Amino acid sequence: MSESPRPASRMSTRAVVIGGSLAGMLAAAAVRDHVDTVEIIEARGLPEGPEARPGVPQAAHFHVLLSGGANAIEELLPGTVKELLSAGANRVPMTTNMLIHSPEGWYRRWQRDSHYLITASRDLTDSVVRRQVVKDPRVGVRPHTNVTALLGSSGRVTGVRLRAADGTETDLTADLVIDASGRGSRLPRWLGELGVPGPAEDRIDSGIAYASRIYRAPVPTHNWPVINVQADPRSGEPGRTGGIVPIEDARWHVSLIGTPGAQPTREAAEFEPYARTLRHPVVADLLAHAEPLTDVALTHSTVNRRYYYERLKSWPEGLVALGDSVAAFNPVYGHGMSVAAIGAVALRTRLASLGLANGLSRKAQRAIARPVELAWSLAVGQDIHYKTTQGRTAGAADRLLQRYVSRLSHTATGSYRVATAMTEVLTLQSPGTVLLHPSVLAAAAIGPLRPQLDGPTFTGGERRLLAEAGIALPWMAR
Fold first, then answer.
1. Residue 113: what pLDDT?
2. Does the structural domain 14-56+124-204+303-381 have CATH classification 3.50.50.60?
3. What is the pTM of this model?
């Protein structure tokens, strides 16, 4: 829908987005219809196509876009999912096209299409979203430029101070500043310089390390299932998780994940032997027939970190924080991109109802906190049960909740109703209260209605592809 012409005498409005990350691009998409221009300030350069963007260490590890996030991106940028699929990404129905070994057992491949994942390399996802955003003539990008401070006062932010690559400093005024600078955000310090007390902060670190590698898949990857063998934090042993995600160009993105005492290394010779230590050999057995295309990438940057900006008594107008600048999650749970997208939609909704009027910033920040809260509870609710976790230990209420979630997961292995409810929450399409609905509570009390599977279940078509590739898996469930 086109906007009404603005009076010629009206002063133009500008939004400044700090960071050219996925969150930054989605922030620009959220505000572009409500201001005259959007300036994205990017400390590094932005690649032209699906190439690595400096400063995104997690891009080396597999990423999935949950249906809650994909739907949000589609709302902001119609046609983006189609563009991703055309570029080689996969749409993976949950759990129809997934082989998941949870701590409670193998999930069945329930037939449903409403909950799904989009699987692609992070570089491809970033490039498609970026292309959709920067083609808008209202959106500009200033690469190789740093934001060094906020302009304004404790009551209102009026712009940012910039430092160009040659060291030149200038001031850029703005009606709205959005911090989407990620894990390295300096917003708490900038707020302090304006006289705004710092926010409460949580840091919960399970010590998880990621080792990842890309392989040439031995079978076609279109409609190939996502495979995930999860650790069991209840065992008291160091956790080992691993998975295979089909991505564009007939490749598998493989990540192996371990807590202290079981952390993988960057040594290529140790990658596949580590996969052999998972709770089931499916990942290792498939990798034995795949061709490695990259070295092993390793990261320890998996801390759950959250700033509670929505709780501050004083929050300046003209400022919003979004994405990892607010909360960065252990990436094993796959929530980061989706939380940023849902938060951007929340920002756009508040802008549509309030405009740039007083009260926007605080209300938008509180709305952004809602999807953060759900993803935070899902991530932290698991991580605190590892003995090596620092920052918080599991209390009696946490252990009670874990037992209930474990009961739900056990029931989900043989109950479509419970599996659907859990998937709605895990894909950020419904709040956690869905799991307390009387029908779900009753189903959990009854338990699974079907016997547990003794291994992953490949479809007839997948078996044929394996056979054609000369891959025999002797443990394969008949």
1. 82
2. yes
3. 0.92
